[in-house]
Design goal:
Number of strands: 6
Strand content: 35-45%
Number of domains: 1
Radius of gyration: 19 Å
Helix content: 10-25%
Order of helices and strands: HEHEEEHEE
CATH architecture: Beta Barrel
Shape: globular
CATH topology: OB fold (Dihydrolipoamide Acetyltransferase, E2P)
Structural class: alpha+beta
Number of helices: 3
Strand order of the largest sheet: 1-4-3-2-5-6
Distance between the termini: 10 Å
């Protein structure tokens, strides 16, 4: 499997829409199904990181996403999944630590401290470690 991410877009292309009609067995199973994992990404705030200082998060790194702040400035979000919930984070130290990591890499993230910065805000400090495997490596499949 290649490590190329598809850009987001509307599918199917050219506006063609096909409705899939589930059979009654599938509808019954759907009504009884229980959620197994959330697919909604959580935005990790500085307060979230402050609440888990010293706690290791083992995640799969899912890449970066560009974003624009309210003043029109470009910044980056890291995307990760810990197996229970995907999350995004924009803390500079974390973004810089992951900028050269391959998508699919298993990493360990530990917030080691939250300190005051020069703009009277807070900055989270991290210990980021490579866990030695990538989900896209053929030997790991």
């Amino acid at each position: 499997m290649e490590n190329n991410a598809k850009p987001m877009g509307l599918y199917p292309l050219n506006g063609e829409v096909t409705f899939i009609m589930p059979n009654t067995n599938v509808v019954a199973k759907l009504k009884e199904a229980e959620p197994t994992q959330t697919l909604t990404s959580k935005y990790m705030t500085i307060e979230d990181w402050q609440n888990c200082i010293g706690q290791e998060k083992r995640v799969i790194y899912c890449g970066m996403k560009e974003a624009i702040d309210s003043s029109g400035e470009l910044y980056y979000l890291v995307k990760c999944n810990d197996g229970a919930q995907p999350f995004v984070a924009a803390q500079t130290v974390l973004v810089q630590s992951l900028q050269s990591v391959k998508v699919g890499q298993a990493i360990s993230i530990t917030c080691i401290d939250v300190v005051k910065n020069m703009k009277n805000g807070k900055t989270a400090l991290f210990e980021v470690q490579d866990l030695g495997f990538n989900i896209f490596d053929k030997k790991e499949s």
